[in-house]
Amino acid sequence: MQQTSRFRALLASPDEELCNRTESLFESLEGQVELLPDGEALLAAAPDLRVGSVVLLDSRMSAVDNGQLLAAMHESGVAKRASIAVISHGYSERTEITNLTQAQLAHPEQFPGDMWLQRLSDGVIDDIIPRNADGLQWRTHLNTLRRGHLLRSELEHLRETTLVQAEHDRLTGALNREAILSILFRETDRVQRMGGSLCVILIDIDDFGHWNSQLGIEACDELLRQVSSRTEKLLRSYDLMGRLGNDEFLIALPGCSPINAVMLAERLRMDVFAVPFDLPSTRVVLTACFAIASSNGRSPVVVLREAEQTMADARLKGPDTIRSATQSAHSGEQRPGIFPGNRDPNLVLW
Length: 350
Fold this sequence. Notes:
The structure is a single chain. The chain has 15 helices and 13 strands. It is elongated. By secondary structure, the protein is of the alpha/beta class.
């Protein structure tokens, strides 16, 4: 874990003597401290703090003593970026923080004078610094605060990375089947509450088994990666894409009407599949069938079943077909822009 020698801290205190002493101390520690007169100034400056910074609060400030400032800092997210320490006078008169008994740590509520011990135990603050601490004690507290916060940040990053890996398909980077279905249920709940729209596009690559036998697994894996990458570039930031099966993808489009979903499917057909895919030894043109269904607040199970039935109808029309569930329900109608293509799905170009 790398740490820079220079770090930043914010000190909120009305005590001029404490501010001067702390400022000199930080200079000797090759650090930078910004002195602030009250909690309002602290909250205004805190958003610029980097991970590993320190916030020092003088317990003599009423907003610190009654917990209002601490609550505001946690609510605004400051506590996620910086360690918080309280400079307390009453606590240091009885015992040094390094000499706390197990009873005090386990049951701080039994020691009424140690209010800050309770908040330390509850995780509201990260440390208590005696008001009369000398230079060596300050150095120890600050280094411990910085190391502890950086470690927690790394653990949180690791947790988030693990969560992302658990939700995404390792090959294509799209959401995996479980994740996309879970999010689809959540989006459906939102549609039901707010009365919005939600459409899904089911994509099934034509004759992918042929490509597996002709090109091999590694080449087909690269094709799937390129399909996913090209598709993602055409989606909005809040659209969702998941891989349902080996050669099947699902796109969820919040706030999208069926007509706009058809238009997107046409763009996918032209911009993703009509453009040759480059492989190390060849170029390949793929085709796919597209099935579109609208949620209308219905269960995702019902919507997906409808999309699968629509996909079966598209398959009957042949490769490179776009078909909507509405069209499938009125099979005698042929809507503009919803038609089978005529490209050979097995075409390989130089």
